[in-house]
Amino acid sequence: MNHQPTPQTTAPWQRAATGANLLGADGSIKPTIFEELTALALEHGAINLGQGFPDTDGPEELKRIAERSIRSAFGDGGLNQYAPGLGLPALRDSIVDHQRRFYGRDLDAGRNVLVTTGATEGIAASILALVSPGDRVVTLSPFYDSYAAMIGLAGGEHATVGMRWPDFAPADEEIDAAITAGTRLVIVNTPHNPTGTALSRGTLERIVSRAAEVGALILSDEVYEHLVFDGPHLPVAAIEGAAERTLTLGSAGKTFSLTGWKVGWVTGPAELITAVRSVKQFLSYSSGGPFQAAVAQGLAYDDAYFRGQADRLRAGRDVLVAALRSAGLTVSDPAAGYFAIADVSSLGFEDASALAYRLPEELGIAAIPVSAFVQPHEARHYSSLLRFAFCKREDVLQEAAERLKRLPELMV
Ligand code: PMP
Ligand code: GLN
């Protein structure tokens, strides 16, 4: 367990950039690692296994519903004017039905659900609503970059629980040591980006019971909920003692392969949703109506649709993990999500970050160094790890497998 105090003397935007490791020593701000490596991939015509987005769109039917909603005129089912701040009633009802069907949760569409502009806005609004300057916020590490940026913006003190290669299971003692008295918020992410870990029931119980002991709230980012390869997803809110203190995030981006639509949602206790809503209404006021209408239909798809998504991703994982292993890398066994982690030291490379900047040009592949997802003082534990995305078509992954065969040659 470690923490990085947030400097209070800098401007809020600098604190956000510092939180996400994007502030240069000369005061310059770097783009996010996703943007930077996607640009490099485009420049060199590389296969982009860096930024996590699918290379096929979600269901045609959902695209048609969004299109129809855009085409209809005001008063004729048209949704081109402001949607309600909480989200379209049809989508909120659909979120409630989906939570009941998959997890047996009983939510009220008027009090327990807030639609957001992607899970990203849900993360921002939740942290800004709940974290005061000096409050301790605990995340797992590696962590998704926007948590750190928003903790920095809110002036929180960011402490972490390490997930260490190769199994990435957080140790109970680290959980206990990190979630101390004075902790305001614990951010959980399961299934986890970047490691592909689905946190075990034991780990979640430990986190929830510590949070309850010290009176901390929980923000659980479950955007990969439908991409668990073996067995059902275990939501944090289903753990005993969690529901009354937990806000849960979902996203149409991952569930329907529509990452550009930016439709997300937050569910949880009415008083917490009210708090998050009061910030959300001044961030975006409301989110895009036509896309919400389509996602409302998507969440009602039968179970086979959702299973199909996990099956497709599992097949992609199998192709990519096999390719990385035949290239000589040691690779994790991701249980869920979009990503696999490879240790490049098994081929003699020491600095995965330096390698990530060479790969697009020299191998025609882009990947993200895991050190981009940790605090600077933790980077040494992750310096030889690269994250590869497998949310791509099979022919693209096969071509990546061909290119990876040349990876050992880059050592000379
Ligand atoms: N949380 C995690 C863990 C993610 O990986 C992502 C996106 N890749 C998001 C949140 C953001 O979701 P959205 O695109 O819905 O804003
Ligand atoms: N969530 C995506 C990833 O982890 C990237 C989203 C972004 O670029 N902010 O790759």
UniProtKB/TrEMBL annotation:
Taxonomic source organism: Zhihengliuella salsuginis
Source lineage: Bacteria, Bacillati, Actinomycetota, Actinomycetes, Micrococcales
Domain Aminotransferase class I/classII large: 47-404
Protein name: Aminotransferase
Cofactor field: pyridoxal 5'-phosphate
Keywords: Aminotransferase, Pyridoxal phosphate, Transferase
MF term (GO), any: transaminase activity
Pfam families recorded: Aminotran_1_2 (PF00155)
